[in-house]
Structures are given as structure tokens and as C-alpha cells.
Amino acid sequence: MMRRLSLFGATGSVGQSTLDLVRRDRESLRVSVLTANSDVAELARLALEFRPDLVVIADEKRYDDLKQALAGTNIGVAAGADALIEAAQYPTDLVMAAIVGIAGLAPTMAALEAGVDVALANKEALVSAGELMTAAARKSGATILPVDSEHNAIFQCLAGGRIDQVRRIILTASGGPFRTMSADDMARATPAQAVAHPNWSMGAKISVDSATMMNKGLELIEAHHLFPVGLDRIEILVHPQSVIHSLVEFVDCSTLAQLGSPDMRIPISSALAWPQRMVTPCAPLDLASIARLDFEAPDEVRFPATALCRAAIAEGGARPAQLNAANEVAVAAFLAGRISFPAIVETVRRVIDADAPATPASLQDIFSVDVASRAAAQYLVDHFEHA
Amino acid sequence: MMRRLSLFGATGSVGQSTLDLVRRDRESLRVSVLTANSDVAELARLALEFRPDLVVIADEKRYDDLKQALAGTNIGVAAGADALIEAAQYPTDLVMAAIVGIAGLAPTMAALEAGVDVALANKEALVSAGELMTAAARKSGATILPVDSEHNAIFQCLAGGRIDQVRRIILTASGGPFRTMSADDMARATPAQAVAHPNWSMGAKISVDSATMMNKGLELIEAHHLFPVGLDRIEILVHPQSVIHSLVEFVDCSTLAQLGSPDMRIPISSALAWPQRMVTPCAPLDLASIARLDFEAPDEVRFPATALCRAAIAEGGARPAQLNAANEVAVAAFLAGRISFPAIVETVRRVIDADAPATPASLQDIFSVDVASRAAAQYLVDHFEHA
Description:
about 50% helix; homodimer
């Protein structure tokens, strides 16, 4: 059966992996919509290859370039934030939400409100607006298929079970590049050290989030929204090899786990083919060669970010959006050499220690919290710099 | 919803664990039938506690004792092999087949032919008569719910998936007490050394099977019957800690695994409650405390049993029944100090190297193969002893 796919964020890493899988299974998958932020040349190239009905470039200034590149084709062309939201409502079977950052939130919400299943690779959207998104999905009947490897693992482990039969969800964490580093050495850690992730090849922002373990804290918030078993039933387990992507323990004390090579095409394919599976070109797991898997409890003294995230989602309301916004500003400041590594999490802590804004009731409220929290974090960063 | 349970082999280890779970969930489980081989006192005690409709003692000589012990109750009493078969057809929702050895085959077949779901803890039945049993289940629509921890793990991993989407089944093996022993030392191994299993507390026969890895070979045969993905898609992986009970790799290279403490009540509860789950008193898995899981490829030079089993099931027909019968005789001879440890597998090899009997078409054929193969093995054992 042919499935139609709308791909938001076609030129990024998840977008490219998605299209790699589509290329191998043109019989079952057809691209209806492609979008990108600003890379017109690549978006046009992909449009000519995949022949979607519609392409959208977020940056309105690139509209003419895109229009010209696709002249003579019958591919529809649009540009701008509103066009992205309209494109999310274009008839399709699955929206792949792979736009990075808060920019992906509005089109993702539009798809969920329209009752379209969403393969969600946009972490920030769910962290900042998890309650609005899950409420929209419940109302419209849309399914959120998580693409993050950890949440996809949990989703797969739950496929045969019911969420009320879950005793515990165990989110695995690599521990990041500083897992064995002393607090003193972390205080002197450089951006170059922080972006060297041991298992996955990732961008600078998410690599730093892995080093602080803020990434795992954000995933804890995501897991809480996606799998509402109660926050005290979601634990973090450090597993340096990142072979087990997460585990679900049921009331009978039977535990299911999903494992795989560190290749994003595995969780992406799981979302694309769900509830079936599709053949991928990924490397099968060779546990005899891997030989050994290690596990340890997280150290929330050296890595306070996960406890901070747990507190933020326990309080709820605007806190997770504040936390996410402050973290983005603090990570950028660290990468620019303006604040120390421990100051990243400290900046976030101070932003969410302020009086709580009102609970966001709309995307507009989320955006307001986001802007205000970025400004607050920026103020603190400037303050750290001059301290 | 109340489920009726007929428990065959109530006084053995799996039977006792089953009743321990029933005791904790009297709201959902009601025992209809209890059977035992010869332990009248314990069977009567259990009957008075669980108040089944019918109890059966296999040993006909104990009928009067059982009748007398249950005098004044309205519990039906019967004895003998035919009574066991009739009891397997007694109205129920699930038969727990926990009789050890070939003695469990006839009642299990009777239940499958009657279309009753069977929780199967009887390894020998499936090894010897797998084709007849799976054919009977297919014909009547009965489901076989495996209770062996490895097969139950695979069954759980498949719950959300389809067998035609399986790329590989990976059966884990502890490697047994002789995993790191040299071939020379194995040649001198004693029964006392062989029965010291590192992870599970088990009887002497299955402990020796674990030491030779014949146990894993028998499980390979079982897996082939239960999960017909093709013999070349079933692999064995040595995993000394026995925490991962087995794994299923799908066509997308995503792998699911089931993990748990070494407590048979976990797979038993899975079969009792399937497709739901029930609360058990088992210890949750604490991977941070376990700290480390190891994996290695099996060494089929030092442990030739698994390759022998693979060859036997590849040839099919009477071979697996021959192999199982010969192994029982050889293990008993080893435990009695009559043959060496390597002579166990060598005896089995010689028995199945003989001309193949006709493919069994009935249980009677299986029993004939069983008897003839035991005689052949006994002849070889006597020969080894005098060599």
C-alpha cells in the first residue's frame, strides 16, 4: 500500500536519512511535500528527484530562487511560516517533523490538529509544548510516532503491551564525552572536548547537550509526554555503548528492550513503516563482536541537568519551555567561549528559578515564554562573562 | 475475567511456581484440573487448597491413596495415562503442560487437538514431536505459549511484530558451568562439577544439558518449531549472565530483547496472563547493579551439541526424537559415573548417525523411536563403560 509522506526539514540530517529510505522503497512511499529552511539549491535538487506536489522554503526571501529552479515542472512552490503551516495540512498519511528547534512547532501542531500521524524528530517542540501537542493528538486521533532513538525504542517495546501494564520506563544514556571526567576538569572543559560524542555523529548543540546530560533530561520530559506512566516511573540508566536504546519493565517484572546500531535510519524506518516494518540497509547488531555492555546509575551531582529537567516537568506549565530556551542560549554562549561548561546548566537553573509565567494555553503563549526566557538567559550569560 | 487453568505436573518446579502465582491472583485464575506423577500427599494437599474439579495421579497404584485423601470433598479423582489424556480435554481456558519428559506428550497433544491453548513447559515433547504438535495446533487453532525463558522471550519480542518481518532470532545461552574450561579438563569433568549451574537453580538432568550445551541445542529445535523463520535465521549467542533471555532482529535491523531476573515465575506469568500481564512478586531487574553484560560466539568445537541438534532438526523426521532419547540415557549414565562428560554428546552422535527410522506420523511412532533410541544409547553406554 502506497503511503504519502510530507517531509518537514528535508535538507537536515533526519530529512536526508528519511529520503535515503524512501529512495529504497519507492513502491511503498511517495513524497507529497518537501520543506527546508533556507537551502534552496538542495531543496530544488530533492524536489526534482522526488517530484512532490508541493515544496516550501521557510525563508521568504528565497521564494524567487526556488520558483525559478523548479520552473517548467508541475511542483507547487510556496514560502514563509504560514506556508509551512498550510503545507502541514496538505493531504498525506504521515508528516515527518524534522525541523530543528522551536521553528518546527507550528507546522507540527497544524498536522496534529488536522489528525495526521506525525513522526516526530523535533525534540524542542515536544519539550516546550508537550501538553498542547499531546492534547491536540488525543483530540484529533493523530498518533505521534517518536523518531528519537530512545523514544522509538520505548514505542517499539510497548507495541505488544498496554501503558497501564508498565512498571517502569528506563531511558538509557551514553553518559556523554564527560562521563568519567571529574567536576574540576569539567569546570575547564572546552567546546572541542564537549562536541566529541562517543557513539553518535551529531551537531554541536546536541553534542553539548549530551555532555551536560541536558539531552537526557529533555528526553525525560519528552518521555513523560509520550508515555504517561507517571514521572516517578521513568528512570535514567547510563549505558556507555548506546546499544540498548531504552527499556520498558512491565508489572510482571518482564523487561523489553530495543537494541540497534547507532544509525538513525532504524528509528526513522520504524516510524515510516509503522505498524509494519521495512527493510533498511543498516548494519545488523553483532553482540558477539561488541562483546560487552555496561550500565551504571547516573551521577546527578556531576550532571545536575537531569534532576533540573525532572523538576521542571514536575512543576509543568511554562517551566519546560523556559528550560529549553535558556539551554539553547547557554549552549551557544559556551560554544562561543563566553561561559564555562558548568555555567550552562547553572544559567538554565537560574532562569527557571524565577517566578513562573502563566501556564501556556496556546502556541503564542509558548513563543512568548521562549522569547522571554532567551532574553533572561542572555542577560545571565552576559553577566557570567563579566563576572 | 476469570480464566480456568488445568495444571499438568502440579508438584514439580514449574507447577509449584504456577500455583504460587495463582495464589496471588485468585480473582483472575481458577484451577480446574491438577495432576501429578506419584506424589499423592502433595497432590492431595494442593487439591484441598485449590479445590479443582478434577485431580489425576499418573501412577495408577496410588489411586486409592488419593481417593481416600480427598474423601468427603466433591473433587473428582482419576488415575493412569488415559485419565491424564481425558483430563487434558476437560473444559478449560489454558493447559499448563509442566510434566517433565516424554510422559507429558500425550496429554499435551490431546489439549492441542481439542483446541485448548497450551502453556508449554515440556521441552521433550516439542523436541520429539514438534511437527505433530504444531500441526495439531494449526489445525485446531490452539496457541502454544512457550514457558521456557528463552522461547517466552522470543514470543514477547514478537508480540508487536509479524514473523515474516523477522530477520534473525538470537537464542542466548549462559554457556553453562564449563564455558571457560579446556577440552582436556572437560574430558575429566565430574557430575558434581556439571550440575553447578551459574545462574539458574535446576535439576541434575537439565544442569548437565546446560554443561554440554545440549540444552541450547534442544531449545534451537524448539525455536524452529515455535517460530518458523527458517533454521538459518536462528542463531545462538553466549551471554554468561543470562539477563537477556533472547532477542529478535527484524528486517529493519531493529532488535527487540526480553530481559529479567532468573525467576521462572516471570515467563510462567507471561503465559498465564497472555495477552495481558499480571503482577508478580519477582525482583525487578537492576542493570546498574548488574553493571555488565557479556556476549561471545559459541564454541562448537568444545561444545559440539548445538551443531548436532541443528543437523538433527535440519534432517527432521525421527532424528530429533532419537537425539532427545539418546541424550537422556547418556546424561543418566554420566550422572551414574559410567561414561565421561564428552561421551554424552558422542553417544548421541552415534545414535543419530545410524540409518534414519521412518518419519513419525503419530505419537505411537514417536514412542517407538523413543524406545528404540534409548535401547541403542544404552548399548553404546554399556560399550563405553567396558572400553
